[in-house]
Amino acid sequence: MIRVVLADDQALVRAGFRVLLETEDGFEVCGEVADGEAAVALARRHRPDVVVMDVRMPGTDGLEATRRITADPDLSGVKVLVLTTFDVDEYVYEALRGGASGFLLKDTEPVELLHALRVVAAGEALLAPTVTRRLIAEFVARPEHRRPDPAALRELTDREREVLALVAGGLSNDEIAEHLVISPATARTHVSRIMTKLGARDRAQLVVLAYESRMVTPGSAG
Predict the structure, then answer these.
(1) Which residues 6+ apart lie within 8 Å of 189 measured at CB?
(2) What is the mean pLDDT of residues 33-61?
(3) Considering the entire predicted model, what is its pTM?
(4) Sheet-wide strand order for 27-33
(5) Cα(10)–Cα(203) distance, rounded to whole angstroms?
(6) What CATH number matches the domain at 2-126, 3.60.15.10, 3.40.50.300, 3.40.50.2300, 3.40.50.460?
(7) Rounded to an integer, what distance in angstroms lies between the CA atom of residue 141 and that of residue 160?
(8) 152 within 8 A of 197, measured Cβ to Cβ
(9) What distance in Å separates the CA atoms of residue 102 and residue 181, rounded to the nearest whole number?
(10) Host H or E run for residue 32
(11) CB 3.0–4.6 Å: which of 34, 53, 146, 218 could bond 62 by disulfide?
């Protein structure tokens, strides 16, 4: 059972998501809120698997709420899936950078939302849509964005750098294993070690770090 909290300031949007999830086997809606502050409180109270987070909400917005949830060690098992009305939204990049596990557009088909929730709840990052990588590439190219600690990057082995580039290209562990002719278990181990060395919460942050470090450049990752 995947337990979900809905955070959106539009009551009709929340109602639509609730109906969708409550009529689908394997999902439970723990609660719904209209602002980021309440989303953080509800996440702490119920410890859901996924918080579906709108970006623009009154008071504490989805970006700040995402940061608070992902920075709380007690909520390490809570994933954030960001929803936005716009396919090019600087706040979406910042949410990914702050620890969100991916994002979807609000006009996404219901079946795609259900798939996204399953992917994120399983600990993967929702990186398949090419718009995600384009978005990250666009904003990390801006000079005001910080780059990762070079000391941490130097700890990566050549193989780990290769794996990181493939993660940034949106490849799954199985696809990485096939590409490098290694076992899926070995691919998972490499990804896990990279996340530990770079202090990344999940694969979404690995993609951001790969672009920010210029280890991967727009157009080179897939």
Answers:
(1) none
(2) 94
(3) 0.70
(4) 27-33, 2-7, 50-54, 79-84, 103-105
(5) 30
(6) 3.40.50.2300
(7) 23
(8) yes
(9) 28
(10) strand 27-33
(11) 53
Q: How many whole angstroms separate alpha carbon 3 and alpha carbon 117?
A: 10
Summary mean pLDDT of the chain: 83
Quote the pLDDT of residue 43. 97
Overall average pLDDT of the 57-81 stretch:
91
Which pLDDT tens digit goes with each residue over 120-157?
Answer: 888 776 654 455 556 666 666 665 555 666 677 888 99
Instruction: Please report the pLDDT score of residue 7 as a whole number.
Output: 96
Residue 207: band (very low, low, confident or very high) from pLDDT cuts 50, 70, 90: confident
Q: Any bridge partners for residue 31, and if so which?
A: 5
**pLDDT at 58 > cutoff 80:** yes
Rounded Cα gap, residues 21 and 140, in angstroms: 34
Q: What is the DSSP string of 33-74?
A: ESSHHHHHHHHHHH--SEEEEES--SSS-HHHHHHHHHH-GG
Using the structure block, give the residue that is written with the tokens 């770090």.
209
- Choosing among 1.10.10.10, 1.10.260.40, 3.30.70.100, 3.40.50.12780, the CATH entry for 147-213 is 1.10.10.10
Q: Which two tokens stand for residue 173?
A: 């562990």
- Using DSSP, state whether 48 is helix, strand or coil: coil
